[in-house]
């Protein structure tokens, strides 16, 4: 079970350190509750010894629970909101924490905690990820949480870091240090005959290709209008719900790669991570209730006679000028018994695809705010069911495309910073892509 928060208080119950891992408890209120209980000897066995109390004590009528360890007149408290938490795990975590502080400061007393509060917070962030205990081995922690007098002029990569960062090997070297970041969004959209959006959805992902030496740490900042809806536990990497905001991008079903430091994202909205080498998906998400305008519109005018059907298809790009869609494919339904096609197009190429009962119009590029047209006809057998043919040709038009330098949700990267112990120059690159997944236009 995760730890909600950790408190360190002095002998009189005054707060020295408070680290909130999960945002589930008011820490000032919790510290005050412990102080008041200390005055009533609620946490002791009457002799002032906290070790004599039950391991897990309910507070505020069970709103949360304390697991307490007393050491050198300091109280180390693990706060949890679940009554089913295993108290032994919480006490073991507190005991390991005290042992780590002893390795760093020599003696764990009020003065050493106050004098080294910055390192205390750094150690807490490394020892627990979103409240889940991680590395509590002092020798590993001392490799990358370093006190001032331990810092060397040219620090080497931590020798034991591979034990703590299982997804990245030690000693990686690249002649050219680069990192490529792709923000990829796929759009699903159903458009009615009048051009109105009947249904829409956006699925997004941030894909990283990392070619960096050593053990770099990257910080990624997204645009401030992003809001992330709470969807349960920290396993999904989702943050707390924020109030509605006009123009906000509300994300759901957010999932992060295990390399992301979730506590920092919770508090600062910064995606901080030590990346695996090569390509991996850093983050995936879904945009909740998107209000979208169509990116493409199309209509097909058909004139059906007994032996022939004529087509006039117009396709328009509705995204802004200056952008260009690549690899555009438009599928227009035709009767299953059509043959002998003839086509003329203003752009691209078209062919008959009998296996799909459709004509396939392809354009390598389709600039924004443009219209292209297709004219053609098919021969039809003399004997056929006109009603059946009409139902076939009224199937939706389907469009596939890819628009670079553009995200339909408005997701943007504000910065991508690379820090390395080696101090090398790195080259970060960011690219945006919007793709059609299931994009169809219904005909009247």
Automatic annotation (TrEMBL):
UniProt keyword terms in alphabetical order: Membrane, Protein transport, Transport
SUPFAM superfamilies, A to Z: Second domain of Mu2 adaptin subunit (ap50) of ap2 adaptor, SNARE-like
Annotated localization: Endomembrane system
Signal peptide: none
UniProt xrefs under CDD domains: AP-1_Mu1_Cterm (cd09250)
PROSITE patterns for the chain: CLAT_ADAPTOR_M_1, CLAT_ADAPTOR_M_2, MHD
BP GO annotations: intracellular protein transport; vesicle-mediated transport
Top-rank taxon: Eukaryota
Keyword field contains Transcription: no
Pfam family, one: Adap_comp_sub
MHD domain boundaries: 176-442
GO cellular component: clathrin adaptor complex; endomembrane system
Family note: Belongs to the adaptor complexes medium subunit family.
PANTHER family listed in its UniProt record: AP COMPLEX SUBUNIT MU
Protein name as catalogued: Adaptor-related protein complex 1, mu subunit
């Amino acid at each position: 079970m995760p730890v909600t928060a950790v408190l360190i208080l002095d002998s009189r119950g005054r707060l020295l350190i408070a680290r909130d891992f999960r945002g589930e408890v008011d820490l000032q209120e919790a510290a005050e509750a412990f102080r008041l209980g200390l005055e009533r000897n609620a946490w002791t066995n009457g002799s002032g010894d906290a070790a004599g109390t039950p391991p897990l004590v309910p507070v505020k009528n069970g709103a949360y629970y304390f697991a307490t360890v007393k050491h050198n007149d300091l109280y180390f408290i693990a706060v949890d909101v679940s009554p089913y938490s295993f108290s032994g795990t919480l006490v073991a975590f507190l005991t390991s924490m005290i042992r780590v502080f002893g390795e760093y400061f020599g003696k764990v007393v009020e003065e050493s905690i106050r004098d080294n509060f910055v390192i205390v917070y750094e150690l807490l962030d490394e020892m627990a990820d979103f409240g889940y205990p991680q590395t509590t081995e002092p020798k590993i922690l001392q490799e990358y949480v370093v006190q001032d007098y331990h810092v060397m002029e040219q620090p080497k990569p931590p020798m034991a870091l591979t034990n703590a960062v299982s997804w990245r090997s030690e000693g990686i070297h690249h002649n050219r240090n680069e990192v490529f970041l792709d923000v990829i969004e796929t759009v699903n959209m159903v458009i009615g005959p009048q051009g109105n959006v009947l249904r829409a959805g956006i699925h997004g992902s941030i894909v990283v290709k990392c070619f960096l030496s050593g053990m770099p740490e990257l910080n990624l900042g997204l645009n401030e209008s992003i809001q992330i809806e709470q969807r349960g536990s920290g396993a999904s990497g989702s943050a707390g719900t924020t109030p509605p905001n006009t123009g906000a991008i509300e994300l759901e079903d957010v999932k992060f790669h295990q390399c992301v430091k979730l506590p920092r994202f919770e508090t600062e909205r910064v995606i901080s991570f030590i990346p695996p080498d090569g390509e991996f998906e850093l983050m995936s998400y879904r945009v909740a209730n998107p209000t979208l305008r169509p990116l493409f519109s199309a209509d097909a005018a058909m004139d059906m006679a007994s032996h022939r059907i004529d087509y006039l298809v117009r396709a328009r790009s509705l995204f802004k000028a200056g952008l260009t869609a690549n690899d555009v494919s438009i599928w227009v339904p035709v009767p299953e018994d059509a043959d002998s096609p003839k086509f003329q197009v203003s752009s691209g190429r078209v062919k008959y695809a009998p296996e799909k009962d459709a004509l396939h119009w392809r354009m390598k590029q389709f600039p924004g705010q443009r219209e292209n047209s297709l004219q053609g006809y098919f021969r039809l057998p003399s004997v056929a069911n006109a009603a059946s043919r009409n139902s076939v040709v009224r199937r939706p038009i389907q469009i596939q495309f890819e628009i670079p330098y553009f995200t339909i949700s408005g997701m943007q990267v504000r910065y991508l910073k690379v820090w390395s112990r080696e101090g090398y120059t790195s080259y970060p690159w960011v690219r945006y892509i919007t793709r059609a997944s299931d994009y169809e236009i219904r005909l009247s």
